[in-house]
Design goal:
With 171 residues, the chain is mainly alpha-helical. 39% of the residues lie in helices and 8% in strands. The two termini are 24 Å apart.
Length: 171
Amino acid sequence: MGVVGSTLTSGSKENAGGAWVLQPTPRNGIVHPPERGPASDMSILSAALLIFVLVVVAPAWAAIAPGLYDGVTGQTVTLEQALQTVRPGHVVVVSEQHDVARHHENQLAVLRTLKNLNLKVSVGLEFLSYPNQPWVDRYVRGEIEEADFQQAIRWAGYPFEWYRPLMLFPR
């Protein structure tokens, strides 16, 4: 449903225009030039490992078909099968990458499936903090217009239509 990934790094990293770059690791608060010998051999080994991951492992991950898999057997499962053990009081966390519309569709599919399993569904969204709750309640009850709600919670970001069905789902 969300995106699973990892980052392989060596030394400290700093974000440079959205790209990760390797920086020398400071010793005693001072950044020293790269040393020759075992340390530079490790840099070569790290670079070789990174190239291996990018050339061999990453394409293998890309070859995995989208879907849901049983974490024990590795077999594909339906959404209903994946959620069949959820009981009242359980918490299901469904993540997403904010700018991928399909992830939001997947979130809604999880909510619908839980409801079809006769479970009461509550929705929590990380960008709505507790002080926003009165505004959320009024919006869900239809007491305020969407534009007023967005202004009240200081909405700024991704298309609201991706989040609207999630916010309104519990009613």
